Design the sequence.
């Protein structure tokens, strides 16, 4: 079976590696153009491109695939390349470009997508973040046959994994990437044997995982400790939850809920107020609900490193009574 692979970040690179190690013939890789990144804003190749070049797999980086879009010449070249590159199926994982019908129709076996949720829940750009932010207890991978709608295609395989109470997006991403790689290998092995039965997605239970914005990562301590804990884990590692403390932006990477601790504050305590700050106890902050608080356990100041609270406090003084704002 000959495969065209379309993907960009590490999530996709894990699947590409799994397909390569399984012995599939990958005849072409599509990935997004190199982009500036890091403090020096130097041009960086995607994780998928790096893997492809290391294994002598041809790479194309079209700006767009839409013939009626802003870059029709670029899209036309990509179409011609796909049409002139014999392949059976296109595997898509976190590619980041819209595939129009004119592309979906090129592979004889169509385009198959690796999606990081249990569809139809969390269609869209940020399913892992949104699952954690919403307090879901499970998530998983869906392999689906692509069609023109946003993650609406019929499902070829679906597997779930639990979301642990302390899971961050980073940790869950790695687990799902591995699962996605394993599943796509199994699905393509089955497709080699003949047509697979695809299950139409149910109409009930549809939710959309909107793209994450940096503005969302500003923590509002008028929310409950539970909601704040979920946001901190959902936005770790990107974009990183943060709050303002007397004019200084502090990133908050890890926290834990202290429940049933109403005795820690008095009637004048405000949401976001620091109750205590010590190497032993971490930074304890009041939240909207009066009987639960957040213990901030890993923090970062501007220009600094992510540090456990005990280390952070050595170089950044926090005193009881100060108030975190957003």
Sequence:
């Amino acid at each position: 079976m000959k495969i065209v692979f379309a993907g960009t970040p590490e999530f996709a690179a894990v699947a590409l590696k799994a397909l390569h190690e399984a012995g599939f013939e990958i005849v072409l890789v599509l990935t997004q153009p190199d982009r500036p990144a890091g403090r020096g804003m130097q041009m960086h190749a995607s994780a998928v491109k790096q893997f492809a070049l290391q294994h002598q797999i041809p790479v194309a980086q079209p700006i767009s695939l839409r013939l009626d879009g802003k870059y029709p010449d670029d899209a036309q070249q990509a179409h011609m390349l796909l049409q002139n590159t014999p392949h059976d199926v296109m595997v898509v994982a976190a590619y980041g470009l819209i595939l129009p019908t004119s592309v979906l129709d090129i592979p004889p076996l169509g385009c198959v997508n690796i999606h990081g949720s249990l569809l139809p829940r969390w269609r869209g750009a940020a399913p892992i973040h949104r699952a954690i932010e919403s307090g879901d207890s499970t998530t998983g991978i869906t392999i689906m046959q692509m069609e023109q709608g946003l993650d609406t295609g019929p499902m070829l395989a679906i597997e779930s994994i639990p979301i642990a109470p302390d899971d961050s997006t980073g940790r869950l991403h790695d687990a799902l990437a591995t699962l996605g790689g394993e599943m796509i290998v199994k699905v393509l092995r089955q497709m080699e044997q003949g047509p697979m039965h695809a299950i139409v997605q149910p109409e009930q239970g549809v939710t959309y995982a909107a793209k994450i914005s940096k503005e969302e990562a500003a923590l509002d301590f008028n929310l409950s400790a539970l909601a704040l804990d979920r946001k901190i884990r959902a936005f770790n590692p990107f974009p990183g939850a943060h709050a303002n403390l007397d004019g200084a932006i502090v990133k908050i990477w890890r926290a834990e809920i202290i429940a049933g601790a109403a005795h820690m504050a008095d009637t004048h305590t405000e949401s976001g107020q620091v109750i205590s700050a010590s190497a032993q106890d971490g930074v304890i902050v009041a939240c909207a609900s009066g009987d639960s608080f957040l213990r901030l356990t890993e923090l970062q100041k501007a220009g600094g490193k992510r540090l456990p609270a005990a280390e952070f406090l050595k170089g950044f003084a926090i005193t009881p009574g100060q108030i975190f704002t957003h």
Observations:
- The CA atoms of residues 59 and 192 lie 24 Å apart.
